[in-house]
Amino acid sequence: MTHLGHVVWPPTPIKTERLVLRGSEARDRAAFIELFASPEVGTYIGGARPREELERTSPAIPGRRPGLFVIELDGSLIGMITLDQRDAERPGHIRPDAGETELGYLLLPRAWGRGYATEACAAALDWFAEALPDEPVVLCTQTANEGSMRLAAKLGFTEVDRFEEYDAEQWFGVRYPPSR
User: Fold this and answer.
1) Exposure of 82 in the CB half-sphere (CA atoms within 13 A)
2) What pLDDT is recorded for position 99?
């Protein structure tokens, strides 16, 4: 949890107009399995994982860790957001020593196209800016993922670099903290 500094996890649930961002719970297990077994979700993240493997290996409370928010709509998980430290060995950094916080998100296909990703990511980024006001956030996505490219722009990320990783062109951007 070093990248989140002094922040206590999980924080108080964050409520938006339509969603709740919260820590994971046992009731989320089936939806986590559905999320990671989905071929559509897996398109830009290396593919879907076998459902049987997920059923066998997923913990009772999957995703219970600092930096992971469940996105809840009407009492059910529709996706997740992560604020993780970007691996220093990967390309794409804004600091010489790496250590940046990276935004990640996955939503179930039934939740696509309704603005939930924008609403949830904006709320998570606002929370992060309040919790760690001087810290930028980075985002990396395949350039072929048009939806994620549009979302990055809506959220205020600006391009820093493009590079090849995982046999695909990647877009790497940053969102600096708002000026005070």
Assistant:
1) 15
2) 87
Task: Write down the pTM of the prediction.
Answer: 0.93
Tell me: cis bond preceding 10? Omega within 30 of 0 counts: yes
Strands (DSSP E) found in the chain: 14-15, 20-22, 68-73, 76-85, 101-107, 137-142, 158-165, 168-175
Q: Which two tokens stand for residue 143?
A: 């350039």
Token pair 């108080």 is at which residue? 12
pLDDT given for residue 1 in this prediction: 39
**In 3D, which of 12, 32, 3 has the Cα closest to residue 102?**
3
CA–CA separation, 170 vs 106, rounded Å? 17
Residue type, 94: I
